[in-house]
Amino acid sequence: MVEDLHVSYGPVQALRGVNLKVEEGSIVSIIGANGAGKTTLLNTLSGIVKAKSGSVTFRGKPLPEKACNIIRQGMAHVPEGRKIFSGFSIEENLLAGAYIVADKHLVEQRRDAMYARFPILAERTHQQAGTLSGGEQQMLAIARGLMSDPGLLLLDEPSLGLAPLVVKAVFELIREIRDQQGKTILLVEQNAKKALALCDYAYVLENGAIVLQGQGAELLSNPAIRKAYLGSDDV
Ligand SMILES: Nc1ncnc2c1ncn2[C@@H]1O[C@H](COP(=O)(O)OP(=O)(O)O)[C@@H](O)[C@H]1O
Ligand SMILES: [Mg+2]
User: Does the beta carbon of 161 sit less than 6 angstroms from any atom of ligand 1?
Assistant: First the structure.
């Protein structure tokens, strides 16, 4: 739950009073043009950026200040541009996602579960992550995010720069993570069409403010949205 969130970078007001709610078990999407403030919003939720004012509650409690405590409370962030540790192995990247988990046995269990889910990673556990394709790196970034077993997964532009078939696989994966693992997902995307088709509820962010919100299907058929974000005003 985000209430009246304001974030500035010096004189640049990136978020100007954002309110939003993410129901547990749902996929909520934020769409908006480049520079609208989408990444700033996710970075604020995961503790990378500090808010100027406003309140965020997560699982009924105020959001902790420190990023590591936010992860402990059950939120994981898969950042824009994947940000995998390219000089490290796939295995090391996965383990990094569970740095807050002290129980080694549990970490190994989760790692094995990731290898079972992503065979492409299992085949290359000791390979440098930077040698993976863009799509594989995105899968690794998501798998790393899942290693802390979050209740809420923040995904920033997971489909950016990927080929159409890979984009499709990424969106299918997001749906599976929600359907099979019961995770809640906050998805930021420039691919508005796919994001709206997938999500339960969506917010449209423009210049740091929410200008429109509604169910995904509803926004998908909204003429103004079609014109501004879907590259067509026909039905
Ligand atoms: N580290 C930063 N320092 C200064 N301005 C920034 C920084 N990061 C983002 N901004 C500005 O904040 C606004 C929102 O950016 P961002 O959250 O990255 O948008 P989006 O993810 O929607 O493209 C933009 O005007 C951008 O130039
Ligand atoms: Mg961004």
Answer: no
